[in-house]
Design brief:
Blueprint (H helix, E strand, L loop, with lengths): L1 H25 L16 E29 L3 E9 L7 E8 L2 E30 L5 E2 L1
């Protein structure tokens, strides 16, 4: 029983140590207390505009057209005699048809074209600067 309690105490201590290490990692780094350039201790935070680039994906829609010829009505251009055992006289007449073109129709297809566009933007960032020399302290 004592060994079980000792084991739980050890595991609890390890868990507490790991939690404190995780909490320390979550805490942001402390800001500088003095200027690395001149050694002055008078620092202040300022808001500064910084240029940047934002990527946007834009979709353009394009219509592609294709002309298609539809078939028209066929025309009778003649007759021919075809042997047929069941027909009277052993032959029958068969019409000869010639196909014709009808009208032209335009098929339209909608097509999406995606392109990435880079836009210049300005964003605000907080910087710590030295009051005496104006140097940026990070």
């Amino acid at each position: 029983m004592r060994s079980l309690l000792a084991l739980l105490a050890i595991l609890g201590g390890v868990a507490a140590a790991s939690l404190s290490a995780a909490e320390e990692a979550a805490v942001p780094a402390a800001p500088p207390t003095c200027c690395h350039h001149c050694g002055c201790g008078q620092l202040k935070k300022v808001c500064k505009m910084v240029p940047g680039v934002k990527k946007e994906t834009k979709t353009k829609w394009v219509v592609e057209c294709e002309d298609v010829c539809l078939p028209g009505p066929s025309c009778k251009v003649g007759e021919r005699c075809v042997p047929d055992c069941e027909a009277h006289g052993g032959t029958r007449k068969e019409n000869i048809w010639e196909p014709n073109c009808g009208m032209i129709v335009t098929k339209k297809k909608l097509k999406a074209i995606s392109e990435t566009v880079e836009k210049p933007i300005m964003k605000c960032v907080v910087e710590t600067i030295c009051v005496q020399c104006g140097c940026c302290c990070k």
